[in-house]
Structures are given as structure tokens and as C-alpha cells.
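Section 4.2 – Deliverable D4.2 (structural model, holo form)

The reporting period included a commitment to supply a predicted holo structure for the target in complex with zinc ion. Inputs used:
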Amino acid sequence: MSTTAKGTKDRLIIFDTTMRDGEQSPGASMTKDEKLRIARALERMRVDVIEAGFPASSNGDFEAVQAIAGVIRESTIAGLCRANDRDIQRGIDALKAAKGPWRIHTFIATSALHMEKKLRMSPEQVLEQAKLSVRFAKKHCPDVEFSPEDGSRSDVDFLCRVLEAVIAEGATTINVPDTVGYAVPEQFGLFLKTLKTKIPNSDKAVWSVHCHNDLGMAVANSLAAVKIGGARQIECTINGLGERAGNTSLEEVVMAVRTRRDFFGLETGIDTRHIVPTSRLVSQITGFVVQPNKAVVGANAFAHASGIHQDGVLKARETYEIMTAEDVGWSANKIVLGKLSGRSAFKQRLKELGIELDSEDGYNKAFQRFKDLADKKAEIFDEDLQALVAQEAGISEEEHWRLVTLHQESGTGEKPKAVLVLKENQTERKTEANGDGPVDATFKAIESVAKSGAELLLFSVNAVTTGTESQGEVTVRLSKGGRIVNGVGADTDIIVASAKAYLSALNKLASKMERVNPQYGKA
Ligand code: KIV
Ligand code: ZN
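Output (C-alpha cells):
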């Protein structure tokens, strides 16, 4: 059994890869600071293993993995490495000073298609490479995970040879990926069972699965692997983020196992009350909006619209609800603070929401923004605080552009116009432009002085709470020279929120910390 020792008979290990596979979604790239915030939220939620990145893919990723390993104590921090010494050494270097447990996760493709067409290696070469890599990793780290990429489409006998060999070299977790989301639940569960039965030393490792959602079956496949195949680790991401159609969604598997304990007979260690705040954090950072009807974390997941359902729930909650909104961290839209609330009440509420800021200066700035917001909006909800803090944390040290004032004119039959005063470093600059709409005019005015030449990939507006007095939270995704960044801005005026989001994205483009989205390829 693994040194992690959590994957026992009735304990399911939750391995989060939001910051690695999740980050491979085009446009979801995160800065080091953003990753640190997500890592803290995952640790608070008691995720067992956090895959913090792919250290050899870029210096930015190396630094992010190192920084996360330097602060997280409770969760195991894993780094992904292709099956070669250089990648694994990079992983070891990023993780060796970790404050808590750490893991090397190495992979190589084992399907005939990938070996021949992508790796251009023979099966014997792949087998040898897999053995050597685990041997090398094991010399430096007791906790080694091995993944045969495209495992679900690999020849079962060849896969057995590879997995038996890497377990003999000391791999403590064997993770079988359904890399392209090709599997179907029963077949995948039986596939895992066959591997475990045929491999003589299979009991020396924890068995794990990593499913993609191309056919919408990632969660079902993962759960079938648990139920039929005896997997005791699931790899997943917050909001199901990930390559293409995404990965298994953490919130769905965790709540399925918990709600249907009668069927699965398993426990996870997850503190489910942190699910919704963490989902929101990831959505704010990546700009990937959660669809309203998404299970567990969608805005409608606990909203009953029809009269029959409302009546039933009022009489007995269980008539139409199989879990409670509070269990997964939905707050009941409480008014939490107002204009007269003081700094300590503000700090206390952030603490209750599991939000930590890095410095007293951070709290002071966030409190000032809260006061500004309270002047415009009488009732401040938890969601407002989360949006406000997300914005504060998204402001980089190297803030190049800042909004000073914005004035816009529009109306039927008029060409919308925006007039802005921006601060570029310490210099104020006035700019104005006309556009097709007020947001277009605002972005054109900003571009006329910033001259970034960036392409606008996404503009989305979300109401933070209900009602027309709600803050609008705007996400702007910009692309330039192969780099994709997200900016977020919130305000009761959505044009102001849009300007803030655009400037935040420009600041990230100007910052050296942001990095190109990592991709993995040949071993
Ligand atoms: O999908 C996949 O095969 C992966 C592996 C690297 C685990 O992400
Ligand atoms: Zn994957």
C-alpha cells in the first residue's frame, strides 16, 4: 500500500488536478499567486493530493509548484513529469523543500496509437523507459505515482506488463487515465478489475483513475472504477475544468460518494462546506463561468422553481432534495455586512468564509473597497465579499494601469461614448472613444492609450447576487503573442466593472509572472 495510507479499504483519496490538467484548458492559465490561493482553498477543503503543476513545462510552473509546496502542510503536493530523468529531476527540485508530503507523478503513453504515432517508440522501449523513470524517481521520493497515458485504449496484456514492472520498481499509486474520454462505465470498471486481478503485485499499490469528459461520462466512469474495479483514488478538478471537455468534477464525485454512502460504502476526507466557495474562486480566477444547471455548484442546483416542488420542499425537504445546500457551502444569501460595519467584523466574516489575505495591507485595501461598495449598495452579501476579495487579490504588485474615473453616455439613437481617466504607473491619462455600445466604447478608449494590440477572446458578465442592485462581475480574456490572460472586475455599474476587468487583464499581460499555457507532449 502507498505511504499516503489514506487509500484504505473504505477511504477514497481525492486527488485534485485543477492546477495542472485544469490549467490545460485553453485560457485557464493561472499566475503563481492565483495558484497559491487555489492551493490554500483546496487544503482547507482537505483534498488529499494537490497536483500543483508540471514543473518542467516552464519556469513559471516550476516556481508555482515550489511556492505551493513551500506553504501547504496538510495535503500531499504532486508534480507531473514525463517519464524521463530531466523532467523528474525538475519535479524533485521543485518539491524537495516541501513543508508537507510530496509526490512525483510520472507518465508515458502505452496505447499502440500513442506509442507508434506520437512517441515513435516500440512497446519494449516504452516499458524500459517507464521502469527507468520510476526507478529514478523512487531514489529521491518515496511516494511515486505512475500513469500509462491513454491507458483505457491500451492493450491489456501489454499494460499488465508495464504496470507490474513499475510496481516492482516502487510505484505506490497506479493511475489509469481515460485520456480521451473514450471509456464507458461498466467496461472501464471491469477493465480496472481485470488489471488488478491479472497483475500479481497489484496489491502493493493504490489504484487510481483519471477520466476525461469528452462523452460526458467522466464522473460515471470514475465511480464505476471505484465500485467495480476497486479504485481508491479519483483524479478530478474543481468545476470539472480540464483539457477539451474537462475532467471528472470533484464536487460531483465527492457528493455522489457521500450522498450514496449506502451504495459505495466509502468515505472521503473532504470538508464539503468548502465546495461552493472553492468553485467560485476557481471560476473567478479562470474566467470559466459555472453553468447554472451544473450539479452541486450551479446557481440552480438547489433552486426549486415549480410550485409543486416548492410546496414539497417546504413540507419536507427530502421530497425533492437529496443533499442540503448548506452541506456544500451555499450560504442563504444572508445580508452579512453594511455601511456601519467595522474592520474587525469585516475581517471576521472573511475568516468565516475561509478567505485569508497575505498581509495587513491587503486587508486594509480590501476594507477600503468594501466601504466604497457599501456606499453604493446597502446590503452586502457573502458573494459580494468574495467578488471584492477576488478582485483585490487579482491586482498584481506590478499594477501598470488603474481606473481613476469613467463617464459614459449612451441612449437610443446616440452613438455611445466613454471618457476615462486612467493612471499609467503614476501618470494620469485622459482618453475617450465612441463605440457600438458602452462597453465597446470603454474598451476602445482604453486601447487608444494602452495600444496593447491584444485580441479579446471572451467578455462575460455575471450578477454576483440576485436583484438589479447586484454587483456585476465581468471577466475579460485577452490573448497576445501566444499568452492568454483573464481579468476580473466587479462593480454595481457593469461598465465600470468591464473597464476594471479589461485593465486587470492588461496588467497581467504586462506582468512577467504570467506564463504560456503549458502543454505536454513527447516523453
Ligand atoms: O489525461 C491524461 O492522460 C493525463 C495524464 C498525464 C495523467 O492527464
Ligand atoms: Zn488528463
